[in-house]
Each structure stands twice: as structure tokens, then as C-alpha cells.
Amino acid sequence: MTDATLQDPDFAQTAHALLGDRGFTSDPDLLDPWLTDWRGRYTGRACGLASPANTQELATLVKLCGKQGVAIVPQGGNSGMVGGATPGRSGNEIILSLRRMNAVRSFDPESKTITCEAGMVLQTLHETVETKGMRFPLTLGGKGSATVGGLVSTNAGGTQVLRHGTMRAQVLGLEAVLADGSVLDTLTPLKKDNRGFDLKQLLIGSEGTLGVVTAATLRLLPQIGTRIVVWAGLDSIQSARRLLLHCEERGKDALEGFEVIPSHSLDAVLDHLPAARAPLADRHAWYALIELVSDRANDTGLAHLTEGMLAEALDKGLLADATIAANETQAEAFWLLRDSISAAERAIGPAMQHDISVPVDRMADFVEQAIEIVERKFPRCEAIAFGHLGDGNVHFHVLAPPGADRASWEAQDAKEISAFVYDLVTQWGGSISAEHGIGQDKVAIFEQLGDPIALNVLHKVKQALDPDGLLNPGKLLKA
Amino acid sequence: MTDATLQDPDFAQTAHALLGDRGFTSDPDLLDPWLTDWRGRYTGRACGLASPANTQELATLVKLCGKQGVAIVPQGGNSGMVGGATPGRSGNEIILSLRRMNAVRSFDPESKTITCEAGMVLQTLHETVETKGMRFPLTLGGKGSATVGGLVSTNAGGTQVLRHGTMRAQVLGLEAVLADGSVLDTLTPLKKDNRGFDLKQLLIGSEGTLGVVTAATLRLLPQIGTRIVVWAGLDSIQSARRLLLHCEERGKDALEGFEVIPSHSLDAVLDHLPAARAPLADRHAWYALIELVSDRANDTGLAHLTEGMLAEALDKGLLADATIAANETQAEAFWLLRDSISAAERAIGPAMQHDISVPVDRMADFVEQAIEIVERKFPRCEAIAFGHLGDGNVHFHVLAPPGADRASWEAQDAKEISAFVYDLVTQWGGSISAEHGIGQDKVAIFEQLGDPIALNVLHKVKQALDPDGLLNPGKLLKA
């Protein structure tokens, strides 16, 4: 097997005959853009790029791949964080894109559901349902490229999980092609169905290792009528935790998001985005970005509730200062500060990112202690944490010492730092992957730190459903 | 193997030595009450009743059973509807009761969770969390005997699913003993955890065929402050559907339950319960039992909302008449009418009960058409439907002709009727088991009408995790 060429020329010919010009290519120039993950950490090889037009074509392709021993790497928007959609090095894999399968199959305003194909991009989904007066309650930074199939396969999170749950909570039904080429269809949106354990749940979050999701029935909500976005200054992460509890109690179901941002991250964003301005005049150790929504337009009740909630929090000393976005433009500006943290940190220099969770009520303690321990253990590095406090999920970044050489730092120190952070999280009863998945990035550390009993079950199920390792080999679990 | 005796006396001795007098018995008199399901439809045989004191004892017992080829039938409150907790006829099975494992392991008011052992009875769970000012948002008729382990293993439903989901939605973490005696522990309540596909989801609803649930971390809600219960009279099931949509739109998150009851069922209940009274003066073709709740005490806003919602419904012709329960006693009396339907129907004569679901927006059409088709096909039988319209789940009962002999009717006509009903439901894209599970009652019909692809996957997973068929053989799937 040499670079991006086929051992068995029959495979490419047969695949091409099956899928046509638009459906299959093994042209290295056309393959190249999809061989590297968007963060540029992994580059693999592939003997083809398949883009079937429909589920039946995909089912036939999967059977062909099975016969010829060619593995399949499903790739959605190629916006994953852990190399889960990037092929390995063998060259005996094809990349599978469902870009041509992006249709809305049905929309039901009464039951508030949409059934769409896996290739639909998240932003298109948002726009599609908005024209119908509805909304899809999950969003994230990569919404312009992330696809429904990828979101389901990775059980994606985002900034609305606090109120609405992860992708798992949005999926009412699935269609998927399994490793033997059979099509599992659970698209009928039954609210209650106890015919056996729930196979749809097994596919959600399986990162394309058990089946290829081809369509999903998703739940929708009424469109947002009123949105209130608050930027608050806090003296500590412990205050943030107390403020969160206060907001949950007072805001109830209106509380849609609660993100925390350390001063370091805000500074970095303000340096990075010249047009951006700090929402508050004074500097604070931490900031909270809080969103409350109502599906009634001009809901003055929500405004009153928010004002009362903040006044009480100020009285109780839970926050030092706060400002409410005056309009949608300002609300978007507040969110842009939050959404630009990763890019701003990246501009400063190399850093290791860790997407971790611990039980919500331990998160503040964890952040305080982990930052101290990591900075003591790795002098001259800076540790920062930001993100979804309300979900017990922060992005824990460790920045290289100023002036460090990226390549050598990433090759050595960074690996040691990550191992240390993951060990620490595991000691705290947490997860080394809160929302990004395992992909190829965390396979080794997962096998090392994961519960051996859980790993054993994962391997058994994988073996049962994909005995030949046809689907996304080497992702989530060791091949 | 003869009646309830052991082929291998070593097994009983070893099990007894392991679990002690309180933990193991093979005394036929002590076994007898647990050999028959509570509806009296199935009677099996067992070579022992095991009641381990803790998870470790159970893990050791499972390994022993594996070695000696003795199968394990987990039994919670023995209140299941499909014989899922009743042993088969081989006699080479033990009944496993977790009645001694009923402790609260931890309670966390801040994260609103409780971790309790599987043997805890649902009513005890309700009472336990009520003393802490919280509530557990799932209830059903068998709450006085149903256990947490049984509720998880069957993904139980009940009358609050409309707002809060089935048991699956309440479970944040699980502990379970697997077929090889290993203990899977996912009790750490992480809100977000994407380390592999979710094994907890696999165990929920697996009816004890993949593992024995020994403990669960469950989500709690603030206690109900105000409850409003409405009894409405309607002219048709189509009106009920329109009324449901209206209540969902107007009641929003306050809408906790929406049950429908046909006049026949109310008549039967009023005959059955001499002290009961009809909530409305006039007779209507259908009734809706509607519950709205708020966690604020004396929430006058909820009262106004309900009154406005009903007035508008009356204006729109969605209901003919309605009454709001004046106090808690009356609210309980309304619910008692609903909860007594099964008992009242049983007192009239033999009937076949079908726990079915179709997509919510098709349920009214289904009920109308199915009643007509079934009554035409089986003259002199009466078909009735009642239950959880808001979940697309009704209990579809077909009553034997007046004066029919129970034994001969159940042996012949009843089987034909059920097969017909299940065929019809399947044609409508529905489920032959909405909330009761498959157990032993529906194994054959599930294998016959179920999606062969889904069945194939279920069998593969079962084979992978329990290759020797140790756990609840012959339930959910053919042994």
C-alpha cells in the first residue's frame, strides 16, 4: 500500500460504478482537504472519498467495503476536536461524506419534530426551522460546518446543555446503516417504546464505530420570544458556583446558559478582537455569561425576574457588578467574547486543551485546586478554565511558557501535562471527555484511565456489531 | 430436574454458605409466592430465592451461578405486566430479590440527586425525598411495590411522562452487576460524559437480560407547591387531541399530565367503586384528566392560567364542560377514577389488555379507527382505549362478549384478538409495547412483528454480554 493508491483497483472501480462521478473519487487532489482534521493535529491516508446520494447507496457501499476489507471513516463537517473523522495511516480506508444527503425528509409542526438527513449542517437546520417559527435547542461554535450526523455520533454538547441537554436529548429517532449493510430505522417518533433496550441510544455518541447515522428525527421548541443576556463580574469561581445555584433557583426553566470566563481569557479576547469592548468598566477575577429566555415576545415578566435575580445576587454578595445587554447586537457581542476564547488563546501561543467534567457541585473546587496544582507542578505554564459551569464541564487549558517552541513543547511537555490533568480529573471522579468524544486523540489515555469493566463492555459491543472493524477503526477504542 | 428441587445440591449449599439464612433459601414454601406474576398469568419454577445484602455478595453469586449454569431471574416488586420477573419452567433458575438492598446511599440537595439501591420501593422513594422538600417525578399505579431496580430495568412510564419523560430521563448514573460478575459503576453523576457510547442507556429497559441494576443516581425536582387537577367532558377523541394541543400551548411547562378516559370506563369505575362520584353532572363520550403544577405554593398565576386555558377551550368548542378539583381530596378522587379503570374492567369480565403507542399526532385517528375495525372483526366484543394521550400511548383493551367463559376465551379468541391488534399497531408505525416491556408475554409476537434488523442487533448485544444466557433467559428475546 502506497500513498493514497488502492491495493485492489477493483474496489475503486466498483465503488465508482455504484456511486457515479459525484459519489466516488480516488483523485488525491480531491481527497487531500479531508485527510487532515481542522485543528491540524492528525493527517491520515484514504483510498477514496465516497458521497452516496441516499441511504440505499450507502448500504450497498458498506456491503462492498465489507467484502473487500476497506474500512469506512464517516466525516461530517470535519469540525471535531479529537481526530474522530480523520482516517488512519493504513490507506485502506475511505472517507465517507454524507454532504449529498442533507434533505429535510419531513417537518411536523404539531408534534414539533423535524426529520432530516445526516449531512444537514447545523446552521442550515437552525435557519430551516426558524422559518417555521421553531428552534432547534442545541448550538456550538462549529455550527457553520458541523452536521446532524456528526452531532448525533459524538453526542455533541454546546452552550444550551444546561437547560436542554446534549444531542442525546434532542434525538427522537434515527436511521443508520450498520456494519453488515443493513439499515436500522427508528425514525417513527414514538414518545414511548419499550421494545427492547434502546438501540438508538447505543448509536448516539458511538463516533461512527457501530453504524453510520443517515437521518434523525429531532425535537424542536417554539422560537425564542425574548432573550436576556447578562455579563457579571465575580470575585472567584466559588462565587460563580453560588451565583449559578441562585440563578437556577430564581430563573428556573428560563435559565438557558451559564458560562464562566476568567479575566485572563477576557484579556486575551480583547487583545485578539480589536473592535471588542469589555462589558464592565472594572476588571474582575471571573465573569459569568448568563442567558435567560422566554418564548413570549417582549416578555416583561422575564425582564423583571432577571432584574430581581441580579439585585438579590448583588445584595447577597454573589456578584460584584453586572450588566444586561441592551439589545440583540450587544447580546451577540457578549457571546462573541465567550466564543472567541479558543481562537484568542491559540493566537498567544501553544496550549493543551482539555475538555473535562466533574460533578457540578465539585467543579468550583476542582478549578481552584487544579489550577494551583498544575501551575506548581509545571512552573511558567499558565492554567485557565472556562466554559459550561452549569454542566460541570470546563475547558481546562494549559498554556506553554512564554516563548516556548511549539513543536518541541507539544512533543514533550504538553504530553506530560495532559497525562497529569487527566489523572487529576479521574481522581475527582470526572471524565476526560465531557463533550468532544474520544476520537483518535484520547484512545490511549482512555484505555489507560478508563474503567476496565466499562472498556470491556465497549469492546464486546463493538466486536458484536462490527466484528471486522469496518467502521471508523481505531477511534473511540483501540482497533 | 423435578419440581423446585436442585439437580446439583452443591449449588444451594454454596449459595447458602455465601449469602446466609437471610440471603438464600430453596424452601418451596418460601419460594412459592414469587413463582407467579401478580396478574396470575405465568407460573414458573425456581431452585432458590437469593436476597444478597450488598453488591459484592451479588457479584459473587452471579459468578457462582455462571459456573454452575444456574440462570438468574431478577424480580423487583413483582408488579410487572408481562411476566418479565417470573421464572421459566426449567427449574434451573433462581429468583433474585434485592429487597435487602434498599438503602439511600447519598442525597445531594444542591445537585438535586439521590443515589439509592435497587430494592427501594417507589413509594418509599417518594416519601424519602418529600421529607427533604423534593420530589421524584415518576409515579404509577404499582408504586407501593415497584422498586427502583425494576423501574430502571423496564424503563417504566406512568402518568407524568408527558412533562418529565420515562425512567430513562430520571437516571443519571447506574451500578449494575454484569453476567460475568463484574460491577459496572457509573454512579458519579456527570452531566456530560462522552467516554464512549453510553452503557447506562443499554441497561435501562433491558429487563434484566444484560445486567442486574443494583443502584441508581436519580434526578429530583423541587416539591410541588400548587397542583390543579381538571376533569373535562368531551364529545370525541379528536376533541381530546385538539384540547391536548391547546393545553400544551397554553399550559407550557406547567402541564404535567393529560389522560383520556372513555365513558365506558368511567361507568365501569363508578359501578366498581360505590363511594365514587362522577365529577360532571352530564355524561360525555370522553373525559380528559388534566394536571398542571407549579413549585410555588398558592400560585395564583397557575390558577389564572388554568381558568383562562379552560375558558378559551370552551369558547373554541374543544370541551363541553369541565370542573377544577376544589381541593387535594377532590384531586385525589379524580385520579382514583383514572387509576381504577383496570381493576374495574377486570371485575366486569375477561379482557385482553394492550399497552401500545403510535405517534402522538396519529393517536386520535388510531383510537377511532381501531375501535371500529376491532369491533367489526370481533362482533360482541367491546374495544376501549384510555390512558396517556399526551405520550401517544393508550391502553387498548378488548372485552370478551358478555357471559364468555374466561378460560376458553383467553385460550382462543383472545389470542386472535391480540395478534390482530398488534398487527394493526405495527401497520400504524406504532409499538406493541409502549411502557410495559416485552417480558415473556410478548417475546413471540415481538420476534414475529419486530423489525428483523433491530432484533438481530438486540440478539447480538445479548450474545456479547451474556453469552451463556445466564440473565433472565427467555425474557425480551427468545432464549
Layout of helices and strands, plus pairs?
Two copies of one chain form a homodimer.
Chain A: H1 9-19, E1 24-25, H2 28-31, E2 48-50, H3 55-68, E3 71-75, E4 93-97, E5 104-108, E6 113-117, H4 122-130, E7 134-135, H5 148-153, H6 161-164, H7 167-170, E8 171-178, E9 183-185, H8 199-203, E10 211-219, E11 221-222, E12 226-234, H9 237-251, E13 255-262, H10 263-272, E14 286-294, H11 300-315, E15 321-324, H12 328-339, H13 341-348, E16 351-357, H14 363-377, E17 382-388, E18 393-399, H15 406-411, H16 413-427, H17 443-449, H18 452-465
Parallel strand pairs in A: 2-4, 3-4
Antiparallel strand pairs in A: 1-2, 5-6, 6-10, 7-11, 8-9, 8-10, 12-14, 12-15, 13-14, 16-18, 17-18
Helix pairs in contact in A: 1-3, 9-11, 9-14, 10-13
Question: Would you kindly provide a written description of the structure presented here, covering whatever features stand out?
Answer:
The structure is a homodimer of 479-residue chains. Chain A is α+β, with helices and mostly antiparallel strands and 479 residues long. Chain A has four domains: 9-97, Uridine Diphospho-n-acetylenolpyruvylglucosamine Reductase, domain 2 (2-Layer Sandwich); 104-222, Uridine Diphospho-n-acetylenolpyruvylglucosamine Reductase, domain 3; 226-341, Alpha-Beta Plaits; 349-435, Alpha-Beta Plaits (2-Layer Sandwich), CATH 3.30.70.2740. Chain A contains 18 helices and 18 strands. Chain A has helices at residues 9-19, 28-31, 55-68, 122-130, 148-153, 161-164, 167-170, 199-203, 237-251, 263-272, 300-315, 328-339, 341-348, 363-377, 406-411, 413-427, 443-449, 452-465; strands at residues 24-25, 48-50, 71-75, 93-97, 104-108, 113-117, 134-135, 171-178, 183-185, 211-219, 221-222, 226-234, 255-262, 286-294, 321-324, 351-357, 382-388, 393-399. In chain A, the strands form five sheets. Chain A has a five-stranded antiparallel β-sheet with strand order 5-6-10-8-9. The longest helix of chain A is centred in the middle third of the chain and has 16 residues, at 300-315. The radius of gyration of chain A is 23 Å and the shape is globular. At the A-B interface, strand 9, helix 8 and helix 18 of A face strand 9, helix 8 and helix 18 of B.
